Amino acid sequence: MDFWENVENELIFQGKTKKELSILTGIKLQSLHKSFERKSEVSAENAVKIASKLNTTVEYLVTGKDSKKDNELLRKYKTTIQALEEIPAAPRKNIEQMILDLSKSINVSI
């Protein structure tokens, strides 16, 4: 995915519109529409504005991955992950499925 696809996905995830993004960033709506359509390169300044207002990183919008967030999650759940690794495969799969089912039942998107 490219920058504009990642921005689009983030807007959808957050329930925001391009118009709202325009207002938040100060980037003209017409310019945003053209950028999305043409998949044009974004200036560093606008990339930072967009990432900031979407509460994400430029890295994530450019690559679709956010190593900082991933590293924070790994640190946060390190002991849980280590404990899961000690559980035999069959029960571990059940635990993983239980977590996924629970997240769906409370409308958490993964």
Summary?
This protein is mainly α and 110 residues long.
Rounded to the nearest angstrom, the distance between the terminal CA atoms is 18 Å
The CATH architecture of the largest domain is Orthogonal Bundle
Topology pattern, helix = H, strand = E: HHHHHHHH
Beta-strand content estimate: under 5%
What form results from the Cα inertia axes? elongated
Number of individual domains: 2
Low-confidence stretches: none
Question: Briefly, what CATH class of the largest domain?
Answer: Mainly Alpha
If you consult CATH, what is the topology of the largest domain? Answer: 434 Repressor (Amino-terminal Domain)
| Average pLDDT over all residues | 91
What portion of residues is helical?
over 70%
Query: Rounded to an integer, what's the Rg over CA atoms?
Result: 18 Å
Structural class: mainly alpha
Q: Can you summarize the main beta sheet?
A: none
H/I helix tally = 8
The H-level CATH homologous superfamily of the largest domain, spelled out, is lambda repressor-like DNA-binding domains
- The count of DSSP E runs of length 2 or more, i.e. the number of strands, is 0
